[in-house]
Design goal:
This protein is of the alpha/beta class. The chain is about 35% helix and about 25% strand.
Length: about 300
Amino acid sequence: MQNVLITSGLTKIYRGVPVVNGVNMTIKQGDIYGFIGKNGSGKTTFMRTILGMTVQERGSYQFFDGVPVEEARKMVGSLIEYPALYKNETVYENMKRFSILFGSNSEQEIFELLGFVGLLEAKKMKAKNLSLGMKQRLGIAIALIGNPSFLVLDEPINGLDPAGIKEIRDVILRLNKELNITFLISSHLLDELSKIATRFGLIDRGVLVEEFTAEELNRINNTRLELVVSDIDRALKLLNERIPANEIYVNEGKIILPNFSSQSGAINRYLVENGVDIFEMARPRESLEQHFIERVGR
């Protein structure tokens, strides 16, 4: 399967601070890659860097397994932050302007894209009169001009109501399934992102902490063990004798063991025999948001 994006040690520094710090990311063809991080964690800067909107200090990136960057950029569409629209012009006129700017200027393409994002009937509406969700869909349609195979979307559902979120979600899924478009999408609405993403990257203070697939998150759900105990400090000391430290988390007074539900009986006996009472032992399903909080905090 083709690699759509590979970054190697990608680093961007502002005022002496690395806001993107040695990021090694891989996105494969067909992925909907959910890019997760707090505000200020480096998501937008990373996206701006790979799009050529700013230049990295160190590291490198390549598209489509080494296609020259200038050629590859013609196959990449983007919507960073909010769509830059001509507010006093209609939906169609906006598409026409950007189509000419991007060197396409195909009437057929304009109408096909407006139909694809559900804005064909709104083609005569002025951009300033569109709802936020419609503006985002128009922004996605503009990003699709020129038939890109990779779309980079920065917070495309930010500020939308539930109906608007569903509209954007449906457009992304349709583009991915019907046109095989690969996505890199950032969002702080993690439960919504978990409904569509096939792969995730978790960034914190510029560092890519973890990459995992939706299947791996489901596997974590099936092996997760939570404990409420009489003495957390003693329990952690005992568990660290048998379990690697990076396999143990504490969240809201609970000890979390992501991969040890199959050993619940042995863990229970071990702690009790060593003076730690078990008040609660459970195997709950973990949401993407819970996983994020446990790895980087609130």
